[in-house]
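Notes from the 1:1 (GR / supervisor)

We went over the backlog. Supervisor wanted to see one worked example end to end before approving the batch request, so GR pasted a single chain during the call. The sequence is below; no edits were made to it. Supervisor asked that the structure be written out right there so they could see what the output format looks like.
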Amino acid sequence: MSKKVALVTGAAAGIGRQIGLRLAHDGIAIGVLDLARDKAKVVADEIVAAGGEAIALAADISRRDQVSEAVAELREEFGPVTIVVNNAGISAQVPFQKLTDEQWDLMMSINLKGTFIVTQIVLPDMIEAGKGRIVNISSSSAQSGAATMAHYSASKGGVIALTKTLAQEFGRHDITANNIAPRFVMNTVMSEKQFTEDSTRDAIIKAGPIRRQGEPEDIAGACAWLVSDEAGYVTGQTIGVNGGRYI
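Structure output shown during the call:
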C-alpha cells in the first residue's frame, strides 16, 4: 500500500474526532464520516491545518446507498480504503418493560447493521491490497450488561461477536479485526446526554479502580496501536479501555 487510508465513522465529535486526529498524526489519510458534512468538515479542516490529509464525508451508516457513495468519494480522493474504524453509534436508556419495537430496531440498525454495512463495503479494498485493519468500537456494557440499556448492550454485544467472526473469516487475507470496549468517556455526545449530573459522573468515576473519567484520547491511543503494523498478529480481540470497570 503506497498510502494508508482510513474511514472513521461518527468522526465529527468525541471519540471519532480524536481517532481521526490521532491516525492523521500517524500519517494516515482520513475519511471523516458523519451524518452532517458541515460538521465533518470542521474536523477534516482541523486535520489538514495540522499537516494531515482528510476529506469530509456524509452518510447515514444504516443506508447502504449513502455509505457506498461516501466510500467511493474517499477512494477517488485518496485511494483504496485499508483501515476502517466503526465508531458511529447511538445510545439510550429505557427500562426493559417500556422498550418498544421501534426503539430496539433503531438501535440495531445504527450500532449493528451500520457496522455490518460499512465493513462489507470497504472489505474488497482490503482483500485486494492483501492487508487491512478493522476496528470496531463496542462497549463495556456489552460485557457486563447494563440496567435500562438492553437494546444498547445487546447491539454492542453483537458488534463483539461480529468482530470475532470477521477475524476468523478474513485473517487469511492479512486483515485483522478487533474491537475496543470503552467505559464512560467524557466529552462525547453520548456522555453529555446521559450523564448530566455531577453526582452521577462522580459515582461512575469512583466505581474505579482507576478513578478518573475516560477521555477520547484513551480510545484513540488504543485504536492507533490496533491499526499499526506492530499489531499485525492481534485479531479477534476485545481491548477493554475502561479503567478496570470490567475485568
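Supervisor's comment: The beta strands are 5-9, 29-34, 54-58, 83-86, 132-137, 175-180, 238-239.
Batch request approved.
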